[in-house]
Design brief:
Strand content: 15-25%
CATH architecture: 3-Layer(aba) Sandwich
Largest sheet: 7 strands, mixed
CATH class: Alpha Beta
Number of domains: 1
Distance between the termini: 32 Å
Oligomer: single chain
Strand order of the largest sheet: 3-2-1-4-5-7-6
CATH topology: Rossmann fold
Number of strands: 7
Radius of gyration: 15 Å
CATH superfamily: Vaccinia Virus protein VP39
Length: about 190
C-alpha cells in the first residue's frame, strides 16, 4: 500500500468489515460521493490511515464532521488504544457509525450528535482533532480552539487551495504532508 502503514490480521479484518458496510450502506443512503471498493480503500481508508504512519496520536481524538467515519474511525483501526469522539449531526450517518463500531468491535468510541460550534466537550480537552471535508476550514479551526488541549494537535485533510487563509488562525501550522496518489491534497498539521 502506498500509504506506508502495515496492519495486522485483526486490523485487516476490521477494515474489510468496515468497507463492506460502507459499500452496502452507501447504496441506500448517501454517505460519500466516492463509489466502489478500490476508490474507497485509496481515498477514504488510505488517506486517513496515512497520518498514523507519520504522527504519534495519543489520548483523546475528536473527529469533526465524521460523516462515514473518515478519518476518525479509520484511524481507530490503526490506533486501537486512542479514545475517539466522533461529531456527526446527521442521524442516518450516526446510525452508520454506530453499526461500524458494533461490527468492528471498537472500544473507546463515542458518537455525538452536535456540530462543532455547539460542542463543548465537558471536562475533556482533546489531544488531537481531525477534520476532513468540513466546509470552511478557517471557521472550523477557530471553533475547535476551545476543546483542543494545550500543546494539542490539529490535522486537516485539505486541497492546496483550501490552505489559504489558515495562517490567520490561532494554530501554529508546522507541516504539510502530501497524500500519495494525489497532486493536490494533503494533511496540514498544526499545534496549539
Amino acid at each position: 500500500m502506498p500509504f506506508g502503514i502495515e496492519l495486522d490480521w485483526r486490523q485487516v479484518g476490521q477494515l474489510s468489515t468496515y468497507l463492506d458496510l460502507l459499500l452496502r450502506w452507501n447504496e441506500k443512503i448517501h454517505l460519500t460521493s466516492i463509489q466502489g471498493a478500490e476508490k474507497s480503500v485509496t481515498r477514504h481508508f488510505g488517506e486517513s490511515l496515512f497520518l498514523a504512519g507519520h504522527e504519534k496520536l495519543q489520548g483523546h481524538l475528536l473527529d469533526v464532521g465524521s460523516g462515514a467515519g473518515f478519518p476518525g474511525l479509520a484511524l481507530k483501526i490503526a490506533l486501537p488504544d486512542i479514545q475517539t469522539t466522533l461529531l456527526e449531526p446527521i442521524a442516518k450517518k450516526r446510525a452508520f457509525l454506530k453499526e461500524v463500531i458494533r461490527a468492528c468491535e471498537f472500544k473507546g468510541v463515542e458518537v455525538r450528535p452536535e456540530r462543532l460550534e455547539g460542542f463543548r466537550g465537558g471536562e475533556i480537552r482533546f489531544w488531537s482533532i481531525t477534520m476532513r471535508a468540513v466546509g470552511s476550514p478557517k471557521e472550523r479551526v477557530a471553533e475547535a480552539w476551545d476543546v483542543l488541549a494545550k500543546d494539542g494537535k490539529m490535522y486537516l485533510w485539505l486541497s492546496r487551495a483550501q490552505r489559504k487563509g489558515l495562517n490567520e488562525t490561532p494554530i501554529t501550522w508546522f507541516r504539510w504532508l502530501d497524500l500519495p496518489i494525489s497532486r493536490d491534497r494533503g494533511i496540514l498539521m498544526g499545534t496549539r
